[in-house]
């Protein structure tokens, strides 16, 4: 890994400080240290005076302002040889000099070398110079607009990724299943490339386009395609990057972003997850976040304020448009709102073809069949589906993806990982009757979705599963279809009651009952499909902000609430009675199907229809659907 000189300097500073103090305090020799290394032995002051009286002292060199002496002495105790001896002299001994002169001793005084002043000066300047150098390094890095980590002085700078020529590797041909949204953005790209054809008739370039839709539907992918097609400067940033813990930083980053955008106009600014900064102001108990509101106010001003933002197209994406501030959504800021919804059958087919280009798929695989089996899948779900199938193919050491891997991947994406089949015969038979109950009711009802397969292999939390596949995408659902779905969901509990009795029913139908209650209540309160009349008594979405509407009155009276409960109960009760009748009338075929299911663990829809048709008239599927009183 290659390190920059700044990183090396940062890591070296502690070692430089340690070496400096060692050098100053321990490695710098003084004059006394030099002379003390010359002297081989020491002598006390009293012994020195005795040598002086005996005339054995030949020479005295004084150091450290007279506190230390190196004497040359000669005496029998020294083997009659001249030796240098170190003597520590007292602080106040004026008579010693007089005594040495009387004895005619050679005296020499050595003044101390004043190196401490130099080192004190260096020590005093070392840390200020180091501090100033560190600040200069920080300011130099703060001027870098790349938005990298560690830039302590660049809080107010925008962290947007800027590309003069965006090379995202994505164009409109790589985006499928959202044809309406593509048309909107192709028009924007054309406006950027050929503005004269629009301005000639007085058209103005849109200031903003808001992409709204569930997660995984391709909003960010569309933005990448626009960047790849437009060939204009492109800024991309997330809404969360505007918000900081420091007051005013978010607004400063918005100003800096639009300042750079104006310098490079015409250009595109893409803000992903704009709900992080654009949510409604003054919402919830105690108001909103003041820093976020300041950031939003600055964003509103930059998009369509006094100066305007001529030549800047703002594209934003969110899956929570219901919480955005109304001032942000108005024309002039976001002139267009493009809904990117879950793809229909044709959309899923196009998406699967795009993601299948770089995968080895067997010739017997039908992409149309996969598209029909995946209603409600988003583009990200479909991409994940093919990737899971490819991983499973590689795990099995196959050369190409087959329908077996795709079927397993669909089951895994929808219901979870495959579990271990049950070995307890009693529990296995009970689950088999439960799943066959769903399947028989779904098959015999005309308005119910056809059965794709029934299996006893556990997946996720489910011990067994019955898969239904709609014939087409149902954006509108009739009353008969809802009734059929309620009856199909009750099929499992009804089979348990008929076969094992009321005392042996299990908790396996808990999720089914939740769906039944929800569908029946929506028929009464939202769709006007009950005796109460064509009234919408409840909103589809609750308010996302705590405290909003806590003091508001109920949407209906207590008397209506009682009627709602009675109508929901009546719908479920009637459907339950009809389902019990279906199970009783077809008990023989149900027992036969249970035996087959236990033996093979899985029955596909084609085999199921064939077996049922041997016992009853499948074409006459609506004889059990009766009108509710």
Topology:
Layout: H1 5-27, H2 31-38, E1 41-43, H3 45-54, E2 57-63, E3 68-73, E4 83-88, H4 94-102, E5 106-109, H5 116-142, E6 161-163, H6 179-193, H7 196-199, E7 208-212, H8 219-230, E8 234-238, H9 249-263, E9 267-272, H10 275-278, H11 290-304, E10 312-318, H12 326-329, E11 336-339, H13 345-355, H14 367-372, H15 379-395, H16 403-415, H17 425-444, E12 451-455, E13 465-468, H18 479-500, H19 510-525, H20 558-585, H21 587-600, E14 602-604, H22 605-613
Parallel strand pairs: 1-4, 2-5, 7-10, 7-11, 8-9, 9-10
Antiparallel strand pairs: 2-3, 3-4, 6-8, 12-13, 12-14
Helix pairs in contact: 6-8, 9-11, 13-15, 15-16, 17-18, 17-21, 18-19, 18-20, 19-20
Function: Acts as a processive, ATP-dependent zinc metallopeptidase.
Domain AAA+ ATPase: 205-344
GO biological process, one term: cell division
In short:
The chain has 22 helices and 14 strands.
Molecular structure report:
- Helices cover 48% and strands 11% of the residues.
- It has 629 residues and is α/β, with parallel strands linked by helices.
- The chain has 5 domains: 50 residues, no CATH class; 79 residues, Signal recognition particle alu RNA binding heterodimer, srp9/1 (2-Layer Sandwich), CATH 3.30.720.210; 178 residues, 3-Layer(aba) Sandwich (Rossmann fold); 71 residues, Helicase, Ruva Protein, domain 3; 177 residues, Peptidase M41 (Methane Monooxygenase Hydroxylase, Chain G, domain 1), CATH 1.20.58.760.
- The C terminus is likely disordered.
């Amino acid at each position: 890994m290659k390190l920059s000189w700044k990183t090396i300097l940062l890591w070296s500073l502690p070692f430089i400080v340690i070496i400096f103090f060692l050098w100053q305090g321990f490695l710098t020799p003084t004059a006394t240290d030099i002379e003390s290394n010359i002297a081989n032995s020491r002598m006390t002051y009293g012994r020195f005076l005795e040598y002086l009286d005996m005339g054995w002292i030949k020479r005295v060199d004084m150091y450290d302002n007279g506190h230390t002496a190196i004497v040359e002495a000669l005496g029998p105790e020294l083997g009659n040889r001249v030796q240098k001896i170190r003597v520590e002299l007292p602080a106040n001994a004026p008579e010693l000099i007089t005594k040495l002169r009387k004895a005619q001793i050679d005296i020499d005084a050595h003044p101390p070398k004043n190196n401490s002043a130099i080192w004190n000066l260096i020590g005093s300047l070392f840390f200020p110079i180091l501090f100033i150098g560190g600040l200069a390094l920080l300011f130099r890095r703060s001027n870098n607009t790349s938005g990298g980590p560690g830039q302590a002085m660049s809080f107010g700078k925008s962290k947007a990724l800027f590309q003069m020529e965006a090379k995202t590797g994505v164009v409109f041909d790589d985006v499928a299943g959202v044809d309406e949204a593509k048309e909107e953005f192709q028009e924007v790209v054309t406006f950027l490339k050929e503005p004269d054809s629009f301005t000639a008739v007085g058209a103005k370039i849109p200031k903003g386009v808001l992409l709204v839709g569930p997660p995984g539907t391709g909003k960010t992918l569309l933005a990448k395609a626009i960047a790849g097609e437009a060939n204009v400067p492109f800024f991309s940033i997330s809404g969360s990057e505007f918000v900081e813990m420091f007051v005013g930083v978010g607004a400063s980053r918005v100003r800096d972003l639009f300042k750079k955008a104006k310098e490079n106009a015409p250009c595109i600014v893409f803000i992903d997850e704009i709900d992080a900064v654009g949510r409604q102001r003054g919402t919830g108990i105690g108001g909103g976040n003041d820093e976020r509101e300041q950031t939003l106010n600055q964003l509103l001003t930059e998009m369509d304020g006094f100066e305007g933002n001529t030549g800047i197209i703002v594209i934003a994406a969110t899956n929570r448009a219901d919480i955005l501030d109304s001032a942000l959504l108005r024309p002039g800021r976001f002139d267009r709102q493009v809904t990117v919804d879950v793809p229909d059958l044709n959309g899923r087919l196009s998406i699967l073809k795009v993601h299948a280009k770089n995968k080895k798929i067997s010739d017997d695989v039908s992409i149309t069949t996969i598209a029909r089996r995946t209603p409600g899948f988003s583009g990200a779900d479909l991409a994940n589906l093919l990737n899971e199938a490819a991983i499973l193919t590689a795990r099995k050491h196959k050369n190409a993806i087959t329908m077996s891997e795709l079927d397993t991947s669909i089951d895994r994406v929808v219901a979870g990982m495959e579990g271990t089949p049950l070995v307890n015969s009693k529990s296995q038979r009970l689950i088999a009757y439960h799943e066959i109950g769903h399947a028989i009711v779904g098959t015999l009802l005309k308005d119910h979705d056809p059965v794709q397969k029934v299996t006893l292999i556990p997946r996720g939390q489910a011990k067994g599963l019955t898969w239904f596949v709609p014939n087409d995408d149902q954006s509108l659902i009739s009353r008969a279809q809802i009734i059929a779905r309620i009856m199909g969901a009750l099929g499992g509990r009804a089979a348990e009651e008929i076969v094992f009795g009321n005392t042996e029913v299990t908790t396996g139908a808990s999720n089914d009952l939740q769906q039944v209650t929800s569908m029946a209540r929506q028929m009464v309160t939202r769709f006007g499909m009950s005796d109460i009349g064509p009234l919408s008594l409840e909103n589809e979405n609750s308010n996302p902000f705590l405290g909003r509407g806590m003091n508001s009155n109920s949407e209906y009276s207590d008397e209506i609430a009682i009627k709602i409960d009675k109508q929901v109960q009546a719908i479920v009760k009637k459907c339950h009675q009809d389902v019990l009748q279906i199970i009783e009338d077809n008990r023989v075929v149900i027992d036969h199907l249970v035996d087959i299911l236990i033996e093979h663990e899985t029955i596909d829809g084609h085999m199921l229809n064939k077996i049922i048709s041997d016992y009853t008239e499948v074409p006459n599927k609506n004889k059990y659907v009766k009108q509710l009183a």
